[in-house]
């Protein structure tokens, strides 16, 4: 499905509910002195893309994180990524992402 097909009131309500659960977990980690390295999305996903056109779930999650003043570094897994594939460039980018 594409983003337009996911963009329903019911799906947005579900994404908001799940996002609030994730934010609560993040706050608990932060309150206990853990560091959140970042948020991992899936490029061009209608629900989980972060860079470029945000997916519906990530829209809700990032909005709630911003309201809670949770700063998240973000990165997207390439849409063509698959285990065992030629992912050398992305793995290099991910390692740099984790270091920062």
Principal-axes shape call: flat
Q: Radius of gyration in whole Å, from Cα? A: 15 Å
Number of helices: 4
In helices, the fraction of residues equals 40-55%
Number of domains: 1
Percent strand equals 5-15%
Listing every helix as H and every strand as E from the N terminus to the C terminus, the arrangement reads HHEHEH
Mean pLDDT, to the nearest integer, reads 95
The largest pleated sheet is described as: 2 strands, parallel
Low-confidence runs (pLDDT<50, min 5 residues)? none
Number of strands: 2
Cα distance, first to last residue?
34 Å
Structural class: mainly alpha
Q: How would you write the strand order of the largest sheet?
A: 1-2
Descriptive overview:
With 100 residues, this protein is mainly alpha-helical. It has one domain. It has four helices and two strands, in the order ααβαβα. The protein has helices spanning 3-6, 9-31, 56-67, 88-99, and strands spanning 39-42, 74-77. A two-stranded parallel sheet has the order 1-2. α3 (56-67) links the parallel β1 (39-42) and β2 (74-77). α2 crosses α3 (56-67). The protein is flat. It starts with a helix and ends with a helix.
